[in-house]
Amino acid sequence: MEIVFVRHGLTDLNKIGRMQGSSFDHDLDEIGQKQAETAAANFDPAPFDVVFSSPLKRSLTTAKIFTKGQKEIKIDQRLTEINFGEWDGQFLTALGQKYPDAIDPWGKAAADYIKYAPSGESFTALNRRCGSFMTDMEKNYLDKKVLVFCHGTLIRMMFAHCLTNGDMNCFETMANCALAKMSYRDGIYRLNYYNRILTFE
After folding, report:
1. Are strands 73-75 and 179-185 parallel, antiparallel or unpaired?
2. Can 81 be counted among the known catalytic residues?
3. How far is CA 14 from CA 147, 191, 195, in A?
4. pLDDT tens-place string over residues 23-50
């Protein structure tokens, strides 16, 4: 199996540095729309056997732009971005100043964020959700090429689940509209590339 993940294009919340989990369903802004269109111009969806997307607008719009009407897009709730609870919609820099122990050295939410956002989804729960999706991919698409449109933190955990026992610290948040690819064979995942950015104008 080959599986390629694509992060959605830019939104207004991305642009101003607010946390954007599953509580916010903003679509691509003007820059994000153009970003996706330009990246998609350098992307061929034809080789993929199946396409999945998060149900959130920013992901689904990106999926439609990239697939160019050539593929059915299957919606999977497990691909929804992490729910950051009370942190959703807040400025990440302000959260880092207030809760430095819950921010990693790269300025992203760390596992301990859940102490200050108790209604959010834990990294452990996110890992289980990603694992459920990947198990289904292994079972149903073993000899296929799979394309998945989703979100920054979720992609980090997908790769962490398969390659580092759920430790997201090993993976950066990909750029908007960037691609990452894994291959799976005989019970082993292999990283092919991560955060590959297609040419933007």
Report:
1. unpaired
2. yes
3. 23, 26, 17
4. 889 999 999 999 999 999 999 999 999 9
Give the pLDDT confidence of 46-85 residue by residue, as tens digits.
999 999 999 999 999 999 999 999 999 999 999 999 999 9
List the beta bridge partners of residue 91: 18
The total of other beta-carbon atoms located within 10 Å of residue 97's CB is 10
- Write out pLDDT tens, residues 126-183: 999 999 999 999 999 999 999 999 999 999 999 999 999 999 999 999 999 999 999 9
The question of whether 121 is a catalytic residue gets the answer: no
Q: Considering the candidates 2, 81, 151, 161, report the single residue annotated as catalytic.
A: 81
Vertex 38 angle, CA 33 and 39, to 5°:
100
How many residues comprise the chain?
201
Is the per-residue pLDDT at 201 higher than 60? no
**CA pair distance 135, 51, nearest whole angstrom:** 16
Q: What b/e readout covers 19-49, taking b as 16+ CB neighbours within 10 angstroms?
A: bbbbbbeebbbebbbebbbbbbeebeeeebe
CA end-to-end distance (rounded Å), the chain: 32
The answer to whether the CB of 20 falls within 8 A of the CB of 38 is no
